[in-house]
């Protein structure tokens, strides 16, 4: 069995694909779902109940900058509409958390570069969630 560190993840955007990710993370040995970010309060309550997420690890789109004060969350997986990836990525990086973003990373190369630069400046990792390794 795996004995190393566990990446503690908050999911941003609690739609259908986020639910698939959350369900898959239940069996994950190297990462754990510990937080949620949504603009819909009822979804946050549902996710707290369903996935055992502490209320202190739940945020909305206006206050998720407060992640910087939460040592329980290491990374944020952004699963929101594509046009929101860049501003949300930059805010997460500025909060000092690693960023995982769904594909496409950004709506154009210039925005993608801004995301890379923001993560480098904040000294956090940036990963694009892409399931096809060699395509």
Plain-language structure description:
- The protein is α/β, with parallel strands linked by helices and 135 residues long.
- 33% of the residues lie in helices and 21% in strands.
- The chain has helices spanning 16-25, 41-51, 85-94, 109-122, and strands spanning 7-12, 31-37, 58-59, 75-78, 98-102, 126-129.
- Strands 3-2-1-4-5-6 form a 6-stranded parallel β-sheet, sandwiched between helices.
- The termini are far apart.
- The model has no long low-confidence stretch (mean pLDDT 95).
List strands and helices in order, with pairings:
Blueprint: E1 7-12, H1 16-25, E2 31-37, H2 41-51, E3 58-59, E4 75-78, H3 85-94, E5 98-102, H4 109-122, E6 126-129
Parallel strand pairs: 1-2, 1-4, 2-3, 4-5, 5-6
Descriptors:
135 residues, alpha/beta, 6-stranded parallel sheet, 4 helices, 33% helix, globular
Mean pLDDT, nearest integer? 95
- What's the Cα radius of gyration? 14 Å
| DSSP helix fraction | 25-40%
Question: Alpha-carbon distance between the termini?
Answer: 31 Å
Largest sheet: 6 strands, parallel
Estimate the global geometry from the Cα principal axes: globular
Order of helices and strands: EHEHEEHEHE
- Which ranges are low-confidence, i.e. pLDDT below 50, for 5 or more consecutive residues? none
Number of strands: 6
Number of helices: 4
**In order across it, which strands form the biggest sheet?**
3-2-1-4-5-6
What oligomerization state is this entry in? Answer: single chain
Beta percentage is: 15-25%
């Amino acid at each position: 069995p795996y004995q190393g560190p566990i990446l503690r993840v908050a999911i941003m955007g609690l739609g259908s694909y986020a639910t698939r990710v959350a369900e898959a993370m239940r069996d994950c040995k190297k990462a754990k779902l510990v937080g949620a970010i949504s603009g819909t309060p009822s979804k946050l309550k549902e996710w707290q109940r369903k996935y055992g997420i502490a209320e202190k690890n739940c945020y909305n789109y206006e206050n998720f900058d407060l992640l910087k004060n939460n040592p329980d969350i290491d990374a944020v997986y952004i699963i929101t509409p594509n046009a929101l990836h860049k501003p949300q990525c930059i805010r997460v990086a500025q909060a000092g958390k690693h960023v995982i973003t769904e594909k496409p990373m950004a709506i154009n190369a210039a925005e993608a570069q801004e995301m890379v630069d923001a993560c480098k400046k904040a000294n956090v990792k940036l990963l694009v969630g892409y399931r096809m390794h060699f395509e």
